[in-house]
Amino acid sequence: MKYKKEKIKIPEELDEVVNQSIYNGLNKPIHKVKPLQVFGGALAGFLIVFVALLNTVPVFAKTMFEIDFIGDICRIFTFREYHFQDELEYIDVWVPQIALDKNDDLENRVNLEISKIINEEVSTAKVRAQEYYDAFIATGGNPKDFQTIHVKIDYEIKQLSSKVASFVINKSETFASAYNTQYYYNIDLETGRIFNLKDWFGNDYKSIIGDQIDEQISKMSKEEQEALLIDGSIEDYIDENQEFYINDENQVVVVFPKYEIAVGSLGALEFVIEG
């Protein structure tokens, strides 16, 4: 089930104020981990700026409250959209935010982490583009022949129901697919918390998932099986922080990023797990 992202026109002054607030308060390195982190003073600072914008920038306030939200208990929407281009790169970004009914703490933590992730991904991509350009020139390349790098960050809602909110943030770069990244979020709307595979399947989650993946691998072509890089049991590659999402049929889809259990030609591998 795909949901259309709402496009928002944001006043020029918003980008400068929000970006400065986020960068000032959130300048520590991020690692691709879940559980979520609490950002303390940075959160307070960000919320102060947000509230101030609602009260001082009429266009911003009007835009925020005219969005057609999805769902009743949880809403996911495009909080901000921006595009940037120079001689090295062009960047397209859609920043999602969630609105949770009666769970402001989780809502704020998720939204702040999303903003931090996206800002640091953009910053890292800009540094990488400059390094690539410098290397290109240093090896005799003509600046006119430099291929502009495209960086895109957006999101996809996998499931949004009265019980589950599951979505993924996607980042891609034309420079190299190795820099493509996904961040998965799965929220139990009944308990108001992020959940993992152990929460879904119980203590035997590794064996349940491993057995089904083994069965699906056995149905792969010979060429695909030979491209796998699994050393030992597939269960050794599964833990509570395993990436996954919930599809529109309420099935868990376990995701192994590109290169994790197979050569790059197979890309990211997904396995639908029943139960």
- The CATH architecture category of the largest domain equals 2-Layer Sandwich
How does the helix and strand content classify structurally? alpha+beta
Distance between the termini: 20 Å
Portion in strands: 25-35%
* Rg over alpha carbons: 21 Å
Please give the domain count: 2
Number of helices: 7
The biggest sheet, with number of strands, parallel, antiparallel or mixed sense and barrel status, is: 6 strands, mixed
Residue runs with pLDDT of under 50 for 5 or more positions: 1-39, 50-69
CATH superfamily of the largest domain: Fervidobacterium nodosum Rt17-B1 like
Question: Would you write up a description of this structure?
Answer:
The protein has 275 residues and is α+β, with helices and mostly antiparallel strands. It has seven helices and nine strands, in the order αααββαββββαααβββ. The protein has helices at 12-25, 41-56, 58-65, 104-138, 197-201, 205-218, 222-226; strands at residues 74-85, 89-100, 149-160, 164-173, 181-188, 193-194, 244-246, 252-256, 269-273. Helix 1 runs antiparallel to helix 2.
